[in-house]
Amino acid sequence: MEQMKRIAREFVLLPLQEKVEYAVQEHEGYGQAFVFSEDQQLDWSDLLYLTIMPAEKRKMKFWPAKPVEFRKTVEEYAIQVQRLSNQMLYLMAENLSLNAPDRFVHIFGEISQSMHYYPPCPRPDLVIGLSSHTDGGGITILLQEDGVVGLQVRKDGDWIPVQPIPGGLVINIGDMVEVISNGKYKSIEHRAVANKEKDRISIAAFCNPEKEAEIGPACELINESNPLNYRNFKRSEYLESYFLEGKKAIEFAKINPSSAG
């Protein structure tokens, strides 16, 4: 974890002309996330987004050659992240008493990773580090840099800061788990705020289903006390809504938005 944070910082502090060699194409690479218009307000952050698992889906043209340990470190970190995600997903399915306790593990087999860099901002009251959203996959495993608070989660209408814990990871529930659990697990709305004096790095690993995977509530979680809350859909259909709506993407799948949220 410490090595991952170190090489992430070494990359983001490279000269811009070296980083733009890996510029974003179709949502992968270095730059800004979710840019759809020259008129939109951009987040106060840059990121490097990579597909890391399964290995055959990696696009190595986006994997930086500097620092020299970058690729080796990301590979080693990915192996450990996948092991942890499998353990978490198995326990979550077991907690729901799903007929197949390895169901989540089989569904969320793809892992992508983003390294976010938030530089100091002279007017943090005028910008947002990363706009509020829910994650569009199964779970997210977040590694925060120590000493700088930036992540916030929404609870009961308020934004609550998530303090970095040395040696700790933050696990976020994503929209796909909310759907499959028929709302028993809730995806968490979150954002990142800028800091006037300090920069900050965070590293998120997203455990996702395949693009054409069929997603829907597990039948054993539908009953009179917990009626069907979501329709079935392909993840590709969801992604079209996600890139347009962000935190509201899951709404399109709700059968009765007022009662399922």
From TrEMBL:
Keywords: Iron, Metal-binding, Oxidoreductase. Residues 103-209 form the Fe2OG dioxygenase domain. InterPro entries: DIOX_N, IPNS-like_FE2OG_OXY, IPNS-like_sf, Oxoglu/Fe-dep_dioxygenase_dom, Plant_2OG-oxidoreductases. GO terms for molecular function: metal ion binding; oxidoreductase activity. Belongs to the iron/ascorbate-dependent oxidoreductase family. PANTHER family: OXOGLUTARATE/IRON-DEPENDENT DIOXYGENASE. This is Fe2OG dioxygenase domain-containing protein. It comes from Picea sitchensis (Sitka spruce).
